[in-house]
Amino acid sequence: MHAFNRFELKYLVPVEQTAEIRAELAERMDADEHSPVGGYGVWSLYYDTPQLRFYWEKIEGLKFRRKLRIRHY
């Protein structure tokens, strides 16, 4: 398994700005060719140990940590 650098920024966006943001993204991005009209759902199921090991790795800021999930598109 290879380690990789990951960097994320997350923002709270007022609902009033969503139409403007969607329009900006539509100008700069192509739609997923496999997506039906209106998009599709993504469901994620996350697993952890009984001791919440993966949760605590995140809370403690462990640089290299695990995430075990099943994702359905």
Structure notes:
By secondary structure, the chain is of the alpha+beta class. The chain has a domain at 38-73. The protein is 25% helix and 14% strand. It has helices at 18-28, 53-59, and strands spanning 43-47, 68-72. It is extended and about 45 Å long. The model has no long low-confidence stretch (mean pLDDT 88).
Outline:
With 73 residues, the protein is an alpha+beta fold. The protein is built from 2 helices and 2 strands.
Could you list some keywords that capture this structure?
73 residues, two-stranded antiparallel sheet, alpha+beta, 2 helices
How do the strands of the widest beta sheet line up side by side? 1-2
- What is the overall number of helices? 2
Q: How far apart are the termini? A: 24 Å
Biggest sheet details: 2 strands, antiparallel
- The stretches of 5 or more residues where confidence is low (pLDDT under 50) are none
- Provide mean pLDDT, rounded: 88
Class inferred from helices and paired strands: alpha+beta
Proportion in helices? 10-25%
Order of helices and strands: HEHE
Number of strands: 2
Rg from Cα:
17 Å
Principal-axes shape call: extended
Kindly estimate the percentage of residues that lie in beta strands according to DSSP.
5-15%
